[in-house]
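Dear Dr. H.,

I hope your travels went smoothly. While you were away I took the liberty of generating a structure for the chain from your last submission, since the lab meeting agenda had it listed for discussion. I wanted you to have the full record in hand beforehand rather than looking at slides cold. The sequence, exactly as received, is reproduced here:
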Amino acid sequence: MAPSPEFAMLDDLPIFLVICHIFGTRRTMANGTEKAGFDENPPTQFEAGAQKTPLRLPAKRERVRLGEGGRFVIPAAMREEMGVKPGEDLILHVENGELRVRSWLRNLRRVQAELSALKKPGESVVDEFLKERREEQRRGDKRFDQLHAEGTARKGAK
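The corresponding predicted structure, in token form, is as follows:
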């Protein structure tokens, strides 16, 4: 298939000029005039709050160096994905020789969500807990009274 007459002349030009010709290096301005150059988006005002996505996608794996006292730095993108900030508590555990790091607060919320699914509607977990503690205290007091009565009975029998 023969090239169209428009592109036939491009055979002798350097590739850069061919690309410029194909993609266009001229743009039409608002007043109808043409201007040479690549079409670019005009600059926009930066808004700090507009950045809702992470600055970069967090790496699945990152190489860090273990420093003095066994310290290392969790890369910023990973901290952001974990939802932790400097000064927050973390949970660490080793599983199959791998160190696992979790946010203490996120872990607490996860456990609360799992346990709230077990709670019956209308049930007060606090009231049940207090009821159990009061019953346990009552049994302890009863046993203490029995032991006290036995001790004083033996003392009086001597």
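Two observations you may find useful: The helical segments are 5-8, 15-23, 76-82, 104-116, 125-157. The chain has a mean pLDDT of 76.

With kind regards,
E. W.
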